[in-house]
TrEMBL record:
Residues 23-220 form the Electron transfer flavoprotein alpha/beta-subunit N-terminal domain. Its cofactor is AMP. PANTHER family: ELECTRON TRANSFER FLAVOPROTEIN BETA-SUBUNIT, PROTEIN FIXA. This is Electron transfer flavoprotein small subunit. InterPro entries: ET-Flavoprotein_bsu_CS, ETF_a/b_N, ETF_b, ETF_beta_N, Rossmann-like_a/b/a_fold. It comes from Lihuaxuella thermophila. Gene3D superfamilies: HUPs. Belongs to the ETF beta-subunit/FixA family. Pfam families: ETF. The lineage of its organism: Bacteria, Bacillati, Bacillota, Bacilli, Bacillales.
């Protein structure tokens, strides 16, 4: 049976994100948290592979204790096991330190539940937006990597092959490779399912496995948390809202409104820009 590991992250709801002008960091207090949007598409694809071929799905995340809520959501959708890696020593991690800890976590997951055949990550996170963690994990674990995947064409457990469509700026690339493989998911990959009632009941009773630095005796402290994060945020800012003047055009019929709009366009330089002149 296939073993699929899905890496997720609990992130602030992007609709509520604000930046502290003094520290140039995200204000997380009072902001609702959700499962990273792209990670859910990775989980959904893992569940589809499970439905078709049979698989064991383990979801992992590194974060504070409240991230347990996001893991429970993944359990409600159909994941089999969930692992929370949490410790104050992991705080302040950039993508380099995060990929290191998640790679160590996947290795420990493999010791507990068997080798991972496929690892899914979202293409990026809503808060960091870098797209570096997935490839970083693949490099550390020496996995084949398929990034920006918008369609999984075929998974062949017997031949241990995976074929996908990679959505690039200049077209779609069809790629096939061998397992074990890491895939980063786009939103075009699928439509995320809703949790079933049995799934929600199981999630309510489920307690994720929790690991701290004490559970990783060979971890290098210099490579985790703030100490292991060479990234420096020089500056962040929120774009100023632009004021745009507008004019309401009204009329008794659509034809009258269209005539007024046409007249306005002829009076302005838009007529030339639109190629009317």
């Amino acid at each position: 049976m296939l073993h699929i590991v899905v890496c997720i992250k609990q992130v602030p709801d992007s609709r509520e994100i604000r930046i502290d002008p003094n520290t140039n960091t995200l204000i997380r207090q009072g902001v609702p948290s959700i499962v990273n949007f792209y990670d859910l598409h990775g989980l959904e694809e893992a569940l589809r592979i499970k439905d078709q071929h049979g698989a064991r799905i383990t979801v992992v995340t590194m974060g504070p204790p409240p991230a347990e809520k996001s893991l429970k959501e993944c359990i409600s959708l159909g994941a089999d096991e969930a692992v929370l890696v949490t410790d104050r020593k992991f705080a302040g991690a950039d993508t380099l330190a995060t990929s290191y800890v998640l790679a160590k976590t996947i290795q420990k997951v493999e010791q507990e539940w068997g080798p991972a055949d496929i690892v899914f990550c979202g293409k990026q996170t809503l808060d960091g937006d870098t797209g570096q963690v997935g490839p970083g994990i693949a490099c550390r674990l020496n996995l084949e990597q398929l990034t920006y995947v918008g369609k999984v064409v075929r998974v062949d457990p017997e031949a241990r092959r995976v074929r996908v469509h990679r959505y690039l700026e200049d077209g779609i690339e069809v790629v096939e490779t061998s397992m074990p493989v890491l895939i980063t998911a786009l939103k075009e990959l699928n439509e995320v399912r809703r949790a079933s009632l049995p799934g929600m009941i199981r999630a309510a009773r489920y307690k994720p496995v929790t690991w701290t630095t004490a559970d990783f005796p060979d971890i290098e402290v210099s490579k985790i948390g703030l100490k292991g994060s060479p990234t420096i945020v020089a500056k962040t800012w929120v774009p100023e809202a632009r004021k745009i003047e507008g004019e309401m055009i009204s009329g008794d019929t659509p034809e009258q409104i269209a005539e007024q709009l046409t007249a306005k366009l002829w009076e302005s330089d838009l007529a030339e820009k639109l190629g009317w002149i």
